[in-house]
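OP here, attaching both records as promised.
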Amino acid sequence: MEHYSITRFIPPARPERSLQKVAQELEAGFLTEMLKAGGFGAPRDAFGGGSGEDVFSSLLLREQAKLMVENGGIGLVENIVRSLMQENGNV
């Protein structure tokens, strides 16, 4: 079985910058799911409920998670980037 590395698809000039962006998206996705599991963004039928309100609450959670990451997040970004850089030998 062949081993594939995500760093293989990153341009060699500044891999840490590209990895940083990917890691931020990953952390935002993780935080979105954690917020959902915690009950944040659960529709309150404030606008009559329905699928539109479900979509809006989902988008709102995603944006809140992105803001959390932009303001430091929970530290996943740094760990992901460090791990991938070590895997690629760019420490």
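Record two, same layout:
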Amino acid sequence: MAMSRTAGAQRQIAGQLLRAGTSVGANAEEAKASFGRRDFAYRNAVVLREARESKFWLRLIRACGLADPNAVEPLLAEANELVGIYTATVRTAKEPAPQGPPSGEQKRNRATGSSDPDGK
């Protein structure tokens, strides 16, 4: 897209799209290095927010006819896919963590039907 060569609002919109779009990638990389489930959910929520912002700028560009629709449509489709992926990622990450396998003692108690730790 040649939008950034045009002075004024078009350049500003192109800059906003550039910042939001590159932020998606940078924050996705940061999410990979998160310290736990809550941090992972938070960092991916930032990715989702930036992907939605990118989608907004692309829709604005399309609506105002600021770029060739043939160039914008594939980018908008990609932004829609990213929003879907990160929506699911954040939703899953916010769910309670699955419990690990039961310990040997818990397995024995289930097998015998006993809640007594001594298995009686």
